[in-house]
Amino acid sequence: MLFNRIKKVLLQKNNNINYRIKYETFKKFYYLAMLSAIFFIIITPVCSQQSAIKVTILGTAGPEYFPDLSGISTLIEANEQKFLFDGGHGTNEQLYKSRINPKDINRIFLTHLHSDHYNGLADVWLTPWFLLGRTNGIELWGPDGTSEMVQGMRQMFAHDMNKRVDKYNLLKNLEITIHPLKDGVIYNQDGIKITAFPVEHSDGNPAFGFRFDYAGHSVVMSGDTTYHQNVVKYGTGADLLIHNVVAYNDQLSKLPEMKEVMKKLATPEQAAKVFLETKPKMALYSHIVTNGLGTKQGDKIIMARTRKAGYTGPLIMGIDRMRILIGNEIKILPPQSLANFPLLYSKEQIFP
User: Fold this and answer.
1) pTM value?
2) DSSP 3-state assignment of 119?
3) Rounded to whole angstroms, what are the CA distances from 63 to 23, 91, 158, 192, 261?
């Protein structure tokens, strides 16, 4: 045995206490090295199985007001890069509460130009610039009309742009580079591919959905749409399929105006049809419209109607600030606690 040989060498000339100490010390270090090696072998595969894509559901609401929900917005992170899809009301606050520094957001994609999908855009663009020290401009992908919208936003905040520009807040870091949306691949860099596809949203047209691909994994976002074959086409086999949904109470469902709204969003039955045809590893509802039903009761009704329509696969209701980790498996993480959460107020801060 190894220990007997070493012991013989250490003790063959002298059987004093020094040699015995050397032997016992060697034995302890040997066992420690062996345990470390075993720990490394066992733990390394687990640690190396990191998620390829992280999705944060920043906000799940439409234009309605809720005490605890923010407007529609989804953040996708991959390859140490961040991509923001839509920016409804409260997006900046939700980024902050999700432990994302808003100044790190510089790629934004708009599904369409209904105000509830970008009324938080100005805040994402302006506040991190002067308050947090964003050191770059923004790239913005949007449908026809995006340039005019940005021009109007600049005019609206002309005072800030004229008065707040100084050596601490450079004008170049307010630049917005606009990329018009088209049907097909709109972004393809560093192994990340983003594809836009047209959907149907009536008075919200032109409206688009998105597919995000990285490292053999994918996330598909329907955007605001009724049932559409393009969602089926691009959503088939996706790791995560995020779909809008609408359900009203009986009274509201009978109103002419609400009937028009329901024609341009997906009912639980229409969404169930999409899920049945695409078979995603995980389906998730966001931009959840439950007027007249309340949030908790509305969620139960939507789930029940979806199941009744025949879809029995993995499905969750989106929750503001929940996280989805996508790799060899899909992990759903709840919103992080805000207890003892630090303030965010200056350029010098390290956050998170």
Assistant:
1) 0.85
2) coil
3) 74, 13, 26, 31, 12
Instruction: Kindly state the tokens that stand for 100.
Output: 């994302």
336: number of CA atoms within 13 Å, CB side? 14
Angle ∠(229,231,234) on CA atoms, nearest 5: 105
User: CA nearest 224: which of 182, 264, 268, 276?
Assistant: 264
Provide the β-strand partners of residue 198.
Answer: 208
> 32-47 burial, b for 16+ CB within 10 Å, e for fewer?
eeeeeeeeeeeeeeee
Query: Token digits for 286?
Result: 């966001």
Q: What is the pLDDT along the chain (352 residues), one digit of tens a residue?
A: 544 544 454 445 444 444 444 445 445 444 444 434 433 333 333 333 578 999 999 999 999 999 999 999 999 999 999 999 999 999 999 999 999 999 999 999 999 999 999 999 999 999 999 999 999 999 999 999 999 999 999 999 999 999 999 999 999 999 999 999 999 999 999 999 999 999 999 999 999 999 999 999 999 999 999 999 999 999 999 999 999 999 999 999 999 999 999 999 999 999 999 999 999 999 999 999 998 888 889 999 999 999 999 999 999 999 999 999 999 999 999 999 999 999 999 999 999 8
Cα 269 from chain centroid (whole Å): 25
Give Cα separations from 217 to 214, 239, 327 (angstroms). Answer: 5, 6, 7
DSSP state letter for 165: -
DSSP annotation of 206 reads S
Is residue 284 a contact partner of residue 242, using CB atoms and an 8 Å limit? yes
Round to whole Å and give the CA distance between 233 and 229.
6
- Distance, CA of 72 to CA of 76 (rounded, Å): 14
